[in-house]
Every structure is written in C-alpha cells, then in structure tokens.
C-alpha cells in the first residue's frame, strides 16, 4: 500500500485564520466574525476562493443562487462530482469555524490532491453554499434548499427576499457579481454525493471525550412567526387595567416557549428575533412579532413540542385581562434528515484511519446544515469535530487546530473512499 | 361691554383637517398621522404655518432647536409675548389632534385677532415646539426642555442625538432649513407666560361628562433604559438548561413591570420600546434593551413604583437559572410640574365664559407636555378638551369639532384675560 495521503494541517489552519482576519473579522484581538452573505467581505472571500481553486486546475461554476462549484476533473466520463460543501457566510456575531472550516478544509483537500498529482475517478467539487446562516436574508440553508428543489422557497421567492435595508437577494447577488448562469437545480447541476465537515456547535463530543462525530441524521426543525396584536395607547394616560399591550402578552408567550421546552424535555425552543411595530417609549405597543425555532430529534417530537407551546399560548391569551390576540403568521421547517449509509460508512471508515475507535461516535446533528437539503437528493453525510464548550454563533466559538486538521484529513479520506467504491462499482 | 370676540370654529376645523391630509396622513380613509419631527412632511407643515403667520403680520423667529416663534406685536414697549404653544409632530402612528390642535388653535386665535383688528397690550406668540413626541429623536419634549434650560439634555447633546437611520438632529434641522439663529434659551428669547390647548389623551373628561379641563399640574415621570445581558449560542445545539437567554429574562422583566404597576396601583408603567442585538432566529439572544416609562401623580410615587419594579427585577434575576444579568443604563425624568395660579385662573375664568360650571373640572395631566418645561421658567397652564374613549397615540384618536372649537375659544379668552391683567398691572 502506498504512503497514506496527508493533508497539510499547518497550511489549513494558517489559511483559515488569515482569510478570516482579512474578510469579516469583527474587531482586533477577537476571533469574532461578521461575514454576512453577499456582503463586500463575503465577495472578497469568494473571489479569493475562486482564484485559489482555478490555480489548482478547477473549473468554477456559479449558479443562480451564487453557489460556487469548483470542480477538479476526474478520469470517469459520466460520473458527477463527489462534493465537499459548506458555507463561508457567518452570523452577525459569529465565529471562524462554523461553515468556514468546511470550505477551507475542502480547499486543503484540493491542494493536497493537486500537489500530490492525484487523479481521481470522479470529479471532486468544492462547494460554497450561499446564505446558509439566513442572518442577512431570512431563511437558513437557503441556496442548498433551492438546489435540492425540495424547499418550499424556490428560486424566484428567494430572489425576492429583502434584507433589513430593503435590498433584494437578487440585487445583492448582482451587486457582488455572483448571480451565475448555472441552473440552481440538482437535476441540471448534479453531484455524486455530498460530504460536509463541520464543527459540532454543541457540547457532546467534548463531554464524551471524542474527536470525530459520524453524523447519521439532522434533527427536525420548524419555525413559527407569531404576531401579537393589541391596541396602541398613550403610556401616560391609559389606565393599567384597560390596556391591550402586545409586548406584555408577547413577553408572557416568550417566557412560556422556554418553560414548555424545559418542562417537556422534548427538544429545544428558542425565540431569537423580536420586533415591535412601535418605536416610541410613550406608546403602548400594538403589534409585536417574534419567531420561534423548535428542534427535536424526530419530526413527531417537533410537532408535539409545538402543540404544547401553542396550547400554553392559548391558555395565556384566554386568561389575560390584557385582551390581546395572537396569530401564527408563517411556518417553515426542515424535516428530520436521514443520511446515506454509504456516506456514513465512508466517514466512519475514514475516521478510523486517523484515530482509534474510542475517539469516534455516531451522532445526530442538532443544527441545520446544507447537508440536510443535499441528503434529500444525493447520498450525504457529515463529519463533526468538537466545539469548545459547545459554543457557536458567538465570537468565542473555537475548535483546536488539531481537530480542524483531523476533520480535513477525514474529509479527504472520505472522498477517496467514496471515489474508490464508485470506481469499483460498489456504490 | 363690546360683543364677545369669537373664533371661527369652521375655519379652525377645516384648516386642521386639510393640513393633516396634506402633510403626514398615514393612508387614505384613515385619520392616522405619521408626521415625524423634522421630516419632509413636518417641513412642509412648518413652511405653511410660517407663511400663514407672516400673512397675519407676525414676525417669525426660528431658534437653535427649530422652535418656531410667530409673534404678533402688542402696544407695550417692554413686555414679552403671551404664548400659545404646542407641537405639530406626531407619533409614527398617531392622530390629528395631539399637539396639532394646540398649534392650529393658536393660528385661529391669531386669525381672529387679525380680522377683528384687535390690538393687544402684550405681543402674542404662536409657538411650534420641535420634537415633542421624541418618536424620531429619542427624548420627548426635547426642544422646550432646551429652551427652559432645566432639562439635563442641553442644546449640544440634543443636536448629537441620532435617529434610527443615524441622522443627527442638528443635520436634520439643517436639512429642512430650521436650524435657526435665535438662542434656544428662555433668558434670551423669553415669554410673559405660556398657554397650551391640548386633547386630554385620557378618558376622564369623557367619563365625567365635562367639556373643559383646567390643568393644574403634570404628573411626574421617569424613564429607565434597561439592558439585559446573556450569552449567545446556537438555537439548535445549546441545551435548554445551560442557556443564558437575554430575551427570556427581558420577557420576564417586562411582564413584571406591568404586574407591579397593576398591583401597587401607584401609577402607570409601560415598556414601549424593545431591541435585541440579535437578528438571527438561530441564535440565542445575548443582549436585549428596553425602556420603562413610569408616571405617577407625584414624584415620590414615581420613585416608589420604580423601586418596587427594580426589587421585582432583582428577585427574578436571582431566581432565574438562566444566569443573565441586567443593568439600568440611563434614566431621564420630568418631575411633577405645578402650573401657575394666574394662568390657571385665566383658563378657568375663560372656560366659564363659554360653558357652565358643571362642564369644567380641574385636573392633572397624565401625559408630558411642552408646558411641563415652560412651567419651570414662566407662568403656565393648559386647557384640556375630551378625547373619545381616551384614545391617543393611535390613528383612532378623535376630538369632536365642537370640542376643538371650544378649546380654541378658551385659548383666545385666556390670552385676552392674561393680557388685560398684565395691562392693569395685576399679574
């Protein structure tokens, strides 16, 4: 057997840190990131990544949602690329690892293949999925959803989504030069399979003392936009008992979201966004909107937790002398995603090439990922590496250089494993 | 005795409605208004008002805060003007009467004096106070506060206040051509006294079956900006028990503000503004700010209610497994304002010239007004007319044409009463 092909951990980590410093760093002396999708920072990171991939001999395609497909040719005539995808956008106050590690590790894999003059059977693709975070244009995992054709929000609907400044997504794509011609549709721009290296973003690997998570599924999740309606009034002249204060009711409902999730132990429920129609301290708020994010390990549990929360809402609103009402305006969701046995096997076998069995565990992802969408149309799995203290979506997010390198190595080996099996005709 | 001088009620009401339709109407078929201070709509209403006053022979001065003083000369050499002041700006979803009635009634008084060729002893001034609402640039009754020199927020500090778009108040004054040269200081641009006609904005006159309120004081009020600090985390991966969710804590605190005001019956307490640092539904909020508005009939009651609320806050934060903290960032306030006996007498005597004694009542204002600031440096009182169902800061705000006219008549008579007393040397 030939010497095992090794990624260059130093190069991976140096590139990850230096590109984060260049494009989207929140402040000096912090590793916080604000690289909102399709921003100037995102454009510069994308331009750099495209140039790097071209210098490694890749053909680069940009699709209608700005997804970047950098494809290194293989010898097979008819096979589609084995993909390594993730995202380079971040939360407004996020870290350097969520998403970014997956794309940088994919680049490191391409660099390793290139410098070792490896020819694969299938083409190998690096993918940067647009707007995974949904932080600028609401709707997480947006562009992989469009590509999968399984999201309820299709291409045109996504193009029409506005950011807080009223900029349309389509306009933002044009502005940074990433409104591509390639169809954003897996049937026209397909993949053999999809692997994604990602940080866990939770505490489990660290707590269990493991280095690699073999991800077998993504938990189900649903979002509900709730609007509470009351009646405006003057804060000085409207007596307390006759008020219909939408913010007071919304506050009781938000408290109940948390309490119900804690009590039922079915999963997690979060209100991350709140917006009041009123911007005056002297006016009783008449309209308040918030979004509930519910995630459980199975879809029936998501529905059960949602039902428990809305039952508690009904109790509060009927008890409440406040005489407000609430309506659920919209729901989105991402059903539980079961990953493909072949991809899971490729990740597990690859992990065991680098670390001993007691360092590896199967797990479900509690966060949504682009892989949740790709898994609906092509074989998919993910590789998790530990997050310090489980912290993510936070400038303190951290994964050690050793774990970053290990993840990239497992990603390389998973791709090669899968490629070998396709060549053999096993997968 | 000469025939009693009468204002023209039809003209007043027509002018009020047509100017509201022209500048700041919220939508067709609604009487809602959005005439934010120093906006284009406000500029156009101001320009029109200045032109009207000039056509009536007034000299117009604009001060450093954009306050408009339109002064009709009197015969006295050394007396300052008897003022009729209020404001023409509105809440983002306000009505046509709050403030606007007071300025339009003052115009109607000037028109009546002009067409009847009345010469007063003192000069008579119409004043449009800038940014009474504090809805665009935070800080209600801002410009009368500067003029009184008694507000803790002085001229330069007000100029530096930003709106939500980041526009500085000074820039906004310049943009619409209302950054005047006249000193915004009662010692340099003084008044003999200040009368203000205003809608009650509460339910008391209507409930008591009265037509005119003789306002003897403005209740005390304080505002507190509260910031709750938690820790950001991913909404999918952070277990419920280990969260530090600032919005959940803020929700509990906001609920308690209402509950404490209801229970203690000391006054009213409102949270009208809430803001979360986070704009992502997938992130546990780490920073939430809100403003508490507390108003009671006396200053000690304001302090008592504030103390009760903050004691309840401490209990919640110490009980809360959530491990968030809160801080009171800033406080502003307007102490109880006691109006001047001479002005109160002028209003009462004038009301009784138009309606019978059982239609008139003394009352305290539960809302803040520019008169609260003027009362600190010149004799001041206010005239209240009924608000339908007590509704204000709301497009449904309504005062009947008859009550608007009655208020304007009482304003005219109060000014003439005061002028006569000054001429006699009694006041």
UniProtKB/TrEMBL annotation, chains A, B:
GO molecular function: hydrolase activity, acting on carbon-nitrogen (but not peptide) bonds, in linear amidines
Key words of the record: Hydrolase
Domain Peptidase M20 dimerisation: 217-315
InterPro entries (alphabetical): Amidase_Cbmase, Bact_exopeptidase_dim_dom, Peptidase_M20, Peptidase_M20_dimer
Superkingdom in the source lineage: Eukaryota
UniProt family annotation: Belongs to the peptidase M20A family.
Identification of the protein by name: Amidase
Organism from which the protein derives: Massarina eburnea CBS 473.64
